[in-house]
Amino acid sequence: MNDPNTLRAQLKTCQPGMTGWKAFEDACIATLTYLFVPPLSPPHIQTRSYSGVDRRDAIFPNRNHEGPGNWTHLFKELGARMVPFEFKNYDTSTIGKDEVNQIRNYLTKPMGKLAVLCTNKKPSHAAYIKRNTIFSEDGKVIIFITTDELIEMIAIKERGDDPSNLIMDLVELFYIQHE
Q: Residue 23 CA to chain centroid, in angstroms?
């Protein structure tokens, strides 16, 4: 298990852009594993679809189908059986609708209707509009988590609280803001 201070330092020191993409992805996976395994199962990293067309950064299996907890709730509400996480560590490019469409394509029926886009900066307005359209068309929920929010979840866990509460907050905020 990683030390929370080490995870924070790794997240804060990743260079944006191509030079830091791998360090960012590794730091995010280590942080998410620290935060959510268990109750989620360890992630499948860099998995490809059978045809090889899709390559997902990380997929965390959610085997919490019964009982209390946020992951059980998300399984029941959104069929979140396999939760894909994508990592975008951009420098000058914006995180826009193409990045949202990319993760949308990963949400097949067996996966469920919840995906998370972890970013080093806030997505563009177009990204927020696109995820609203995706929810209106398909009922798929895509939430954005910034580096600052990952660091906040580390603090939540250190206090002895459930970091998945922030995931629930972001899903509920998405529902409130959806139009």
A: 17
The sign one gets for the Cα dihedral 155, 151, 111, 46 is negative
Of the candidates 41, 46, 47, the one whose C-alpha atom is nearest the C-alpha of residue 71 is 41
Nearest-angstrom CA–CA distance, 31 and 37: 10
Here the tokens at position 82 are 């396999």
**3-state SS, one letter per residue, for 118-177:** EECCCCCHHHHHHHHHHHHHHCCEEEEEEHHHHHHHHHHHHCCCCCHHHHHHHHHHHHHH
Beta-carbon count within 10 A of 8 CB: 17
Which has the closest alpha carbon to 17: 168, 152, 121?
121
Dump pLDDT digits (tens) for 79-137. 999 999 999 999 988 999 999 999 998 999 999 999 999 999 999 999 999 999 999 99
Of 85, 79, 40, the closest CA to residue 63 belongs to 40
The packing angle between helices 97-104 and 125-138, to 10°, is 30
Question: Rounded to an integer, what distance in angstroms lies between the CA atom of residue 158 and that of residue 86?
Answer: 25
> Nearest to residue 86, comparing CAs of 7, 162, 29?
29
3-state secondary structure of 20: helix
**pTM higher than 0.70:** yes
